[in-house]
Design a protein that fits this description.
Length: 78
């Protein structure tokens, strides 16, 4: 995984992360296998929308990574 989880913000769902070789902080949102099975289409739609949105009041989406069967969405940290 390119990112390292630094600390948990909300139990089992939101984390502060850093990216290897980068000093920026990122917000990581975990999506479990169970959640993904229930709403895979929703997650794909959300990611496609987030990639298109460029607005000062909306967190910028950076990328999606799979780790140990879970997915992590990485956003700007503010």
């Amino acid at each position: 995984m390119k990112y390292t989880i630094v600390r948990e913000i909300k139990k089992d769902s939101l984390y502060e992360a850093t990216k290897k070789g980068d000093k920026k902080r990122y917000l990581a949102r975990k999506v479990t296998k169970k959640e993904l099975n229930q709403s895979k289409d929703y997650l794909n739609k959300e990611i496609n929308i987030l990639k298109q949105i460029k607005h000062d009041n909306i967190l910028k989406f950076y990328e999606l990574e799979k780790h140990n069967g879970n997915y992590f969405l990485f956003y700007e940290y503010c």
